[in-house]
């Protein structure tokens, strides 16, 4: 092909699409290639369809709570149509996929379908055609990482769970990260019996320990069973049943087994090694704060770098890279106070340091916590509590961590994250008038640090 692109993007997920259209908007000639569907993990098989399932699963709890407020239900037991949910969810995903492609076309980006492989310096091969590019961006995301154990072919991952023709009556989940817990919570709310296996002692090991322990107690109230220090070593299929055997010899029977044991950068067979791009042992591409790899003219953003695997991080990295390459700027992404959430029921949300991290990072900290029953459940009869926590650097009075578990925790954390990123102090929080009555006002009324003795 005679055309030489200013930027060739490999991967049509959130980061790749943002980089392509933003760069084109700045005047660059851009091509992008995707071997599957535009939208990537988040839109096609991640954040979006999963959040729609979260919303769908919450109605059962609303029905149960309604009688305490005087509502008489016209039915004793709500009935859910799994196929109707799938149809509506998939239609919305398809709509968003179309939007992604239209956004690219609106910026005159050359959109290609097929697997892209780096074919040498400044060369990308898509199917049987080789394209030339001054710069190449890898934005290929990540994929589920499965353990090599007998019978693993009988398990599903976070990809296949969206394709289930029917809801499993019994779900066994291996893994206590956000993916495993979110799907465990969703399926339990729909009525499935759910057991979650953890190889260690705690769930959400990378999150604040106290918050994670609180969340586990709330999930147990919902009927999820947790078995710690249990890891499957083999799976067998007997008729319609799956039998998982743990290292201790215990057997677990289920209709489906979800393996949520982590994700791996999707960088295999892209031509990176042949070009000399440095990667970590797990395949993650090594980049600097300008998203440059070890090879000049080759860049990487998003989950394929395995730094902070969040969709908004991928899009932020992509935007800043485009501005740096074609907008004559030198921007970088600030990762320190990135908010995130686990969309269980109830959800967990956080911003900044966990208590464990803060104790390593700061000389002295003050920790403020509150554990209470929200007003929403004053009449519902549902045993659900809310937990919130602020972590303060005692030397500067700056709030360096915020954590919440409970109703709408993720929604309120976004506003708290703005304050934390702006450098708000505990005095700023104290000075702010709360909106009453709300759950979020408690962030403004925490006054007494936890007694460490």
Q: What CATH architecture of the largest domain would you give?
A: 3-Layer(bba) Sandwich
Indicate the radius of gyration in whole angstroms: 24 Å
Beta-strand portion reads: 15-25%
Tell me the CATH superfamily of the largest domain: FAD/NAD(P)-binding domain
- State the helicity in percent bands: 25-40%
Average of the residue pLDDT scores: 96
- CATH C-level name of the largest domain: Alpha Beta
Question: Would you mind describing this structure in some detail?
Answer:
With 453 residues, the protein is of the alpha/beta class. It has 3 domains: 4-144 and 264-326, FAD/NAD(P)-binding domain (3-Layer(bba) Sandwich); 152-261, FAD/NAD(P)-binding domain (3-Layer(bba) Sandwich); 339-445, Enolase-like, domain 1 (2-Layer Sandwich), CATH 3.30.390. Helix content is 31%, strand content 24%. The chain is built from 12 helices and 23 strands. The strands form 6 sheets. Strands 4-3-2-8-18 form a 5-stranded parallel beta sheet, with helices on one face.
Short description:
The chain has 453 residues and is α/β, with parallel strands linked by helices.
Features of this protein?
453 residues; alpha/beta; FAD/NAD(P)-binding domain; Enolase-like, domain 1; five-stranded parallel β-sheet; five-stranded antiparallel β-sheet; 12 helices; 31% helix
How is the secondary structure organized here?
Elements: E1 4-5, E2 7-10, H1 14-25, E3 30-34, H2 40-45, H3 47-66, H4 82-106, E4 110-113, E5 116-120, E6 123-126, E7 129-133, E8 136-138, E9 142-144, E10 170-174, H5 178-190, E11 193-198, H6 209-221, E12 225-228, E13 232-238, E14 241-246, E15 251-254, E16 256-259, E17 263-265, H7 272-275, E18 298-300, H8 311-326, E19 339-342, E20 348-352, H9 355-361, E21 365-372, E22 386-393, E23 399-405, H10 409-421, H11 426-431, H12 442-445
Parallel strand pairs: 1-7, 2-3, 2-8, 3-4, 8-18, 10-11, 10-16, 11-12
Antiparallel strand pairs: 5-6, 6-7, 9-17, 13-14, 14-15, 19-20, 20-23, 21-22, 22-23
């Amino acid at each position: 092909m005679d055309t030489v692109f200013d930027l060739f993007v490999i991967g049509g997920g959130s980061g790749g699409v943002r980089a392509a259209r933003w760069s084109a908007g700045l005047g660059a000639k851009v091509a992008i290639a995707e071997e599957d569907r535009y939208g990537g993990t988040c839109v096609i098989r991640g954040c979006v369809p999963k959040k729609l399932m979260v919303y769908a699963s919450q109605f059962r709890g609303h029905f149960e709570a309604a009688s305490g407020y005087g509502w008489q239900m016209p039915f004793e037991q709500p009935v859910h149509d799994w196929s109707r949910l799938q149809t509506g969810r998939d239609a919305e995903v398809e709509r968003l996929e179309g939007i992604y492609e239209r956004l690219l076309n609106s910026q005159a980006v050359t959109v290609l379908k097929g697997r892209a492989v780096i074919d040498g310096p400044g060369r990308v091969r898509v199917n049987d055609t080789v394209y030339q590019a001054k710069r190449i961006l890898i934005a290929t995301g990540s994929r589920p990482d499965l353990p090599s154990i007998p019978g693993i072919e009988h398990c599903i991952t976070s990809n296949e769970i969206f394709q289930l023709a029917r809801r499993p009556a019994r779900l066994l989940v291996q893994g206590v990260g956000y993916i495993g817990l979110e799907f465990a919570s969703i399926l339990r709310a729909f009525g499935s019996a759910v057991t979650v296996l953890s190889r260690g002692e705690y769930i959400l090991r990378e999150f604040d320990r106290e918050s994670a322990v609180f969340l586990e107690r709330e999930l147990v109230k919902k009927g999820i069973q947790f078995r710690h220090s249990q890891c499957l070593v083999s799976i067998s299929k007997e008729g319609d049943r799956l039998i998982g055997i743990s290292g201790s010899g215990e057997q677990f029977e289920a209709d489906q087994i979800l393996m949520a044991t982590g994700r791996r950068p999707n960088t295999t067979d892209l031509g990176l090694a042949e070009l000399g791009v440095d990667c970590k042992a797990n395949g993650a591409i090594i980049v600097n704060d300008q998203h440059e790899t070890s090879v000049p003219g080759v860049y990487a953003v998003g989950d394929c770098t395995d730094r902070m695997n969040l969709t908004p991080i991928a899009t932020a990295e992509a935007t800043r890279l485009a501005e740096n390459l074609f907008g004559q700027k030198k921007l970088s992404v600030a990762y320190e106070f990135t908010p995130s959430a686990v969309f269980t029921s109830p959800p967990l949300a956080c911003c900044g340091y966990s208590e464990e991290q803060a104790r390593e990072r700061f000389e002295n900290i003050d920790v403020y916590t509150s554990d209470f029953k929200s007003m929403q459940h004053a009449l519902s009869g549902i045993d659900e509590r809310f937990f919130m926590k602020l972590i303060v650097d005692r030397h500067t009075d700056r709030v360096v961590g915020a954590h919440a578990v409970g109703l709408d925790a993720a929604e309120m954390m976004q506003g708290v994250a703005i304050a934390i990123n702006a450098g708000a102090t505990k005095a700023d929080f104290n000075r702010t008038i709360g909106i009453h009555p709300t759950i979020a006002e408690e962030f403004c009324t925490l006054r007494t640090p936890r007694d460490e003795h």
